[in-house]
Model the fold of this input.
Amino acid sequence: NAGVTQTPKFQVLKTGQSMTLQCAQDMNHEYMSWYRQDPGMGLRLIHYSVGAGITDQGEVPNGYNVSRSTTEDFPLRLLSAAPSQTSVYFCASNQGDNLNTGELFFGEGSRLTVL
Amino acid sequence: GQNIDQPTEMTATEGAIVQINCTYQTSGFNGLFWYQQHAGEAPTFLSYNVLDGLEEKGRFSSFLSRSKGYSYLLLKELQMKDSASYLCAVVDSNYQLIWGAGTKLIIKP
Done:
């Protein structure tokens, strides 16, 4: 059972570079989301999707883009990396289209450093 | 604003019992989650409470009081593998998750 798969696990970028974090799930989940986790803070929602073709902004969307062309995939794009985007990024999915329906399944995380 | 409060760090002894508290002030309430996160790993689901009372699941129990905006996670018969961060998260009226910063639990032999 693959669950939620994120790549890459580690990445170092220079300021101004762009990159895409990949996320795929094989559980046919409607809800997918991207979080960032920083020391001393709770997980913060970047973007989320309640189904293919539907995306919406979370708490901290600036500097990030997403798309949801299929149920399985939900890539996160950093348009022009900044040191403030140094963080650990988690992709997560949920069976329903809202969070009242049970647990989130997380990917293993992507540790991004922007120099 | 919305806020979740948890102690930053707790220490307990192997074999003992520990209670991790979580208080919340959110715009509406549609449930509360507890997740476990080992260092360098992803969070994993422990429990979900939407009604008042105690939910027991093996060595772990979770309690909720909606009127007090309060929950706790109770871990019994502590094992070294329980050393981890424990995250409290509340589903608000817009069905978004509000996360606490987590409680780092250190287990000593």
About this structure: The mean pLDDT of chain A is 93.
